[in-house]
Automatic annotation (TrEMBL):
Pathway per the UniProt entry: Glycan metabolism; pectin degradation; 2-dehydro-3-deoxy-D-gluconate from pectin: step 1/5
Listed name of the protein: Pectinesterase
Major place of residence: secreted
Enzyme Commission number: 3.1.1.11
Keyword Kinase: no
Residues in Pectinesterase catalytic domain copies: 2-278
Keywords: Aspartyl esterase, Cell wall, Cell wall biogenesis/degradation, Hydrolase, Secreted
A GO molecular-function annotation: pectinesterase activity
Class in the EC hierarchy, top level: hydrolase
Pfam families linked to this entry: Pectinesterase
InterPro entries, sorted: Pectin_lyas_fold (IPR012334), Pectin_lyase_fold/virulence (IPR011050), Pectinesterase_cat (IPR000070), Pectinesterase_Tyr_AS (IPR018040)
Catalysed reactions listed for this entry: [(1->4)-alpha-D-galacturonosyl methyl ester](n) + n H2O = [(1->4)-alpha-D-galacturonosyl](n) + n methanol + n H(+)
Length: 293
């Protein structure tokens, strides 16, 4: 995208790029020296960036249709798609941008749709589609008021594969006030699907699902074992969820899993605490809730 190439280097102020309605078939890279870039589409239903790279032709990180490294990145009203299809890793967007934010965007893919790779990230009112580990990475990311859609053809769905590698890293995924359900093409076959909130990519994997609607596709066990991966050091938490898949009575019995019932236990995972959002999200103009709902 030529507009990104011509953007200023190490900008200290917001640099806006209007992405007009249309389908853009290309690989887009926002390099580390392109800071505070904002891509503003005309609506996720009319503005799409798409490409079809996939493993094994490319390494997983190289499959990303859009790859963001410059800090302070923001996107609004755009669809990011990897159209390679199901069966192998194919990333729609990879962000390793600290203080990156996404508002009313759509992420379309199957396996490894969205790579929240590194840094503090915020997703608001976004739609994310996938099958296997379709939200993965080692960022500290909050997904607030988002729709997370399990897609056909898989019968086993894993929403997250969070990659925290050490107790000392500030990373984890927080899913808050969101909806975890089946995509429209799967609604009539929901009973055939077993969906899981996540599986531990690395031993310190951290995922908190709170104040969200969990549809009937969520398996009673809740979380999925990854053979050969430890479960004693991870942090998997559920708090204040509702819906037919929200019952915790039959959840896995891992040491690292807890169903919480006191709000004080999840305050550390709110936007203001977990990603220090009050210090940087207001500039974006994206509405957000800093604490609990």
């Amino acid at each position: 995208m030529d507009a990104i190439a011509s953007a200023p280097i190490q900008s200290q102020s917001r640099y806006f790029i209007h992405v007009k309605a249309g389908i853009y078939v290309e690989i887009v890279e926002v390099w580390a020296n392109k800071t505070n870039i904002a891509l503003i589409g005309d609506g996720a239903n009319v503005t799409k960036i798409t490409m079809n790279r996939r493993v094994p032709e490319f390494q997983t990180n190289e499959t990303a249709t859009v790859s963001v490294k410059g800090n302070g990145f923001m996107a609004k009203y755009i669809t990011f798609e990897n159209s390679a299809g199901e069966g192998t890793q194919a990333v729609a967007l990879m962000s390793q941008s600290d203080r990156s934010s996404f508002y009313r965007c759509t992420f379309l893919g199957f396996q490894d749709t969205l790579c929240a790779h590194f840094g503090r990230q915020f997703y608001k009112e976004c739609d994310i589609y996938g099958t296997v580990d379709f939200m993965f990475g080692n960022a500290a990311a909050v997904f607030q008021t988002c729709n997370l859609y399990a897609r056909l053809p898989n019968r086993v769905i894993t929403f997250t594969a969070q990659g925290k590698k050490s107790r000392y890293e500030n990373s984890g995924f927080v899913i808050q006030n969101s909806t975890l359900t089946a995509a429209p093409d799967l609604q009539s076959n929901k009973s055939q699907v077993h969906a899981f909130l996540g599986r531990p990519w690395f031993e310190w994997s951290t995922v908190i699902v709170m104040q969200s609607f969990l549809d009937s596709i969520i398996d009673p066990a809740g979380w999925y074992e990854w053979p050969g991966h430890r479960t004693d050091e991870l942090t998997y938490r559920e708090f204040g969820n509702w819906g037919p898949g929200a019952g915790t009575g039959r959840r896995i019995s891992w040491v690292g899993y807890k169903a919480l019932n006191q709000s004080k236990e999840v305050i550390p995972f709110t936007v203001s605490k977990f990603i220090q959002g009050n210090s940087w999200i207001p500039e974006s103009g994206i509405p957000y809730t800093s604490g609990l709902y």
